[in-house]
Specification:
It contains 1 helix and 4 strands; from the N terminus they run ββββα. With 171 residues, the chain is mostly helical. The strands form 2 sheets. It has a two-stranded antiparallel sheet. It has a two-stranded antiparallel sheet with strand order 3-4.
């Protein structure tokens, strides 16, 4: 098996058996032999084949399936069954790609939701701490004002008492 990594110019060297005489092929003349075989290339992108001398043997572009439903497949022959398997394999690969993409999107949504929940919880806790701190500060300010008021009242009482003492001495 040859797996192409996507780099341009990758080479696959193929060697076959040298034929000497009739080995199941059909003689095509006095100096040649025709042998049947099958070489299948599947690719989701365009590719080309060339010989070692640089002569281009085959150029293929991407071709989509013309079948729109699996019900239109003919599996009555070997070629039809092979084509049906290729179509089904392509459909499964397409579904797998979609599932992978949707799974990645779902994972991103899940992490965003978790992040937003943590942020909302942190904001709520911060708001509560600020309100608690404001309440403590206001309570301290109230206590301070009450102490100052009591001190002022005590001083005023002492000042009034001194004037009363002076008046009582004069009587």
């Amino acid at each position: 098996n040859f797996v192409h990594s996507g780099d341009a110019g990758e080479t696959l060297a193929v060697e076959g058996q040298t034929l000497t005489g009739p080995t199941g092929g059909t003689p095509a003349g006095t100096d040649s032999l025709v042998v049947g075989g099958k070489l299948e290339f599947n690719s989701s992108t365009a590719f080309s084949l060339s010989s070692s001398s640089g002569t281009e043997l085959l150029t293929a572009g991407t071709v989509g399936s013309s079948l729109s439903s699996v019900g239109a497949l003919n599996i009555g022959t070997q070629v039809g069954a092979s084509n049906a398997l290729a179509v089904v394999d392509g459909a499964l690969a397409f579904v797998d790609d979609l599932r992978a993409s949707l799974g990645a999107v779902q994972n991103r949504f899940s992490s965003v939701v978790a992040s937003n929940q943590a942020t909302a919880e942190n904001v709520s806790a911060a708001r509560s701490r600020i309100q608690d701190a404001d309440f403590a500060a206001e309570t301290a300010n109230l206590s301070r004002a009450q102490i100052l008021q009591q001190a002022g009242t005590a001083m005023l009482a002492q000042a009034n008492q001194q004037s009363q003492n002076v008046l009582s001495l004069l009587r």
